[in-house]
Amino acid sequence: MTARSLEELASPYLQGLVPYIPGKPIDEVERELGITRAIKLASNENPLGPSPLALRALRDALSESHRYPDGGGYYLKQGLARHLGLTSDHLVLGNGCNELLELMARCFLLPGDEVVIADPAFVIYGMLAHLQGCTTVRVPLKAWTHDLEAMAKAVTSKTKMVFVGNPNNPTGTAVRPAELTGLMDALPDDVIVVIDEAYIEYVPPEMAPDSLGFVRQGRPVIVLRTFSKIYGLAGLRVGYGMAPPPMVELLERVRAPFNVNTLAQRAALAALDDDAHLSNSRSINELGRAYLSGELQRLGLECPPSVANFLLIDLKQDGRAVADALLRMGVIVRPLGGATLKTHIRVTIGTPPENERFIEALRTVLGKEQRSALSDQQPGKELIAEG
Question: Following DSSP, what letter does each residue of 230-276 receive, concatenated?
Answer without folding.
Answer: TT--GGG--EEEE--HHHHHHHHHHSPTT-S-HHHHHHHHHHHT-HH
